[in-house]
Amino acid sequence: MIRAQSTSPISFINFQLLATVTLTFTAAKALMLMVTERLPHFIDPVIGAASRKLSFKQMQNGTVIIGGALVAKLDFDTEHTEINWPQMAKSAKTVLDFFPQLKNTRIVRAWAGIEGFTPDNLPIIGRSQRFDSVYHAFGFSAHGFQLSPIIGKIMAELIDTGKTDLPIDAFSISRFHTVTAATAE
Ligand SMILES: Cc1cc2nc3c(=O)[nH]c(=O)nc-3n(C[C@H](O)[C@H](O)[C@H](O)COP(=O)(O)OP(=O)(O)OC[C@H]3O[C@@H](n4cnc5c(N)ncnc54)[C@H](O)[C@@H]3O)c2cc1C
Fold first, then answer.
1. Would you say residue 114 has pLDDT above 50?
2. Is 155 helix (H, G, I), strand (E, B) or coil?
3. Which atom of ligand 1 approaches the CA of 146 most closely?
4. Considering the domain 31-115, what is its CATH architecture?
5. Closest CA relative to residue 32, chosen from 73, 58, 70, 79
6. Which of 20-24, 27-31, 95-99 has the lowest mean pLDDT?
7. Is the CB of 110 under 6 A from ligand 1?
8. Which of 49, 43, 79 is nearest to 67 (CA)?
9. Ligand 1 pocket test target in 145, 146, 150 with most atoms within 8 Å of CB
10. Average pLDDT of 29-46?
């Protein structure tokens, strides 16, 4: 289990494991999303753009969820987020460049969700180097949903057998040793 609380004015998360281990290298960001009114089904795949900030998917109920790593203003202490509407307008413009037929579609809601980002935007996965019964799987940096099936498999293998056949060394917490000093593991 992970505890999150802010520790500094530069909005770092202080992850306190139950064993009182402290990590101070994961930054919190509040990613924004907006959702349209229900539309007749028109697209199946999730759409991303290589050169523009866009994540676009139509849900089964017909609404379209639009994001793209755009961040809201975040007060981490109060967990309060404030939508950046000018950024959202840019996002809407991007959508219209790809899907001009949505010109008169209503946006019904926008929100932001708080998430931890590591300095290299890669998650931390593996067994703690200090506590045998502590396993890390956090810092997904906006990619947690799509990774969750394989992360679940890896964690189950690690906890059950102590190892996994998949190469997870690149995700070890030890890559941050120089940043986190003696307390982080
Ligand atoms: C707006 C938005 C859109 C996203 N879209 C996508 C997407 O399209 N595809 C994708 O792959 N990923 C997406 N992500 C990322 C994905 O949601 C995360 O990577 C994923 O949820 C991270 O999972 P997690 O279990 O590590 O952390 P979380 O889901 O944040 O879970 C951490 C849990 O710990 C709990 N917790 C925190 N502090 C404490 C405490 N002190 N005590 C007890 N419990 C505590 C929290 O309540 C929470 O339930 C999106 C994220 C956001 C914010």
1. yes
2. helix
3. 11
4. 2-Layer Sandwich (3.30)
5. 70
6. 20-24
7. no
8. 49
9. 145
10. 96
- Residue 54, both tokens: 């866009």
- Residue extents of the structural domains in the chain: 31-115, 118-183
Q: Burial letters for 155-168: b for 16+ Cβ neighbours within 10 Å, e otherwise?
A: beebeeeeebeeeb
Tokens of 135: 């396993």
The mean pLDDT value of the chain amounts to 84
- Reply yes or no on whether the pLDDT at 48 is more than 80: yes
Length of the chain: 185
The CA distances from residue 74 to 106, 112, 115, 117, 170, in Å, are: 26, 9, 11, 14, 30
What pTM, to 2 d.p., does this model score?
Answer: 0.77
C-beta separation of 28 from 114 below 8 A: yes
Q: Cβ–Cβ contacts within 10 Å for residue 149, how many?
A: 9
Angle 119-121-123 from CA coordinates, rounded to 5°: 105
* β 64-67/80-82 pair status: unpaired
Dump strand ranges (E) for 8-79: 12-17, 22-36, 47-48, 55-58, 64-67, 73-75
Compute the distance between CA of residue 157 and CA of residue 5 in angstroms, rounded to an integer. 30
Contact 53, 166 (CB under 8 A): no
121 C-alpha vs ligand 1 centroid, how far in Å? 14
Q: Which two tokens stand for residue 47?
A: 């759409």
